[in-house]
Amino acid sequence: MAPAQGCTVSRADDAGAEAVKQFAEREIKAALAYAAGGGQAVHLMGHWATQLPGAPQVFRRATGCAHLFDQNLDRLVITARGFGVRVIKVERAGEEGQHIDLCGKPLEKAKARCEEMLQA
């Protein structure tokens, strides 16, 4: 099946890096479905999401953010650490939509992973 419009699909590379699929801001349902099916999804969000009440200071300085969805908790944490997330906070742990929020350099690394794997 072809990816939805705006999606970027990456596949596992020879070094064993996990496949990650990138979804545009309005594709949250597709991102959640992809994660529920066993994949990892980076769901991009705009600057507005960094300004929500209660957002950590690191997010308030960011120009954008994303959810890293994955229903496999161990893989989710390993992937987030690989992207450079220093403080791991799993939102909705054990539930549909389990994710870690990304911004700044970890977000850029996540987007770069998708691009690199597409080029491979």
Give a structural overview.
- With 120 residues, this protein is α+β, with helices and mostly antiparallel strands.
- Helix content is 32%, strand content 18%.
Q: What attributes characterize this protein structure?
A:
single chain; 120 residues; alpha+beta; 6-stranded mixed β-sheet; 4 helices; 32% helix; globular
**Rg value:** 13 Å
Sketch the topology as an H/E string, one letter per element: EEHEHEHEEH
Low-confidence stretches: 1-16
| Widest sheet: strand ordering | 1-2-3-4-6-5
**Strand element count:** 6
The SS-based structural class is alpha+beta
Helix content: 25-40%
Distance between the termini: 20 Å
SSE layout:
Layout: E1 8-9, E2 21-23, H1 28-36, E3 41-45, H2 57-60, E4 65-69, H3 73-82, E5 90-91, E6 99-103, H4 104-119
Parallel strand pairs: 2-3
Antiparallel strand pairs: 1-2, 3-4, 4-6, 5-6
In short:
Helices cover 32% and strands 18% of the residues.
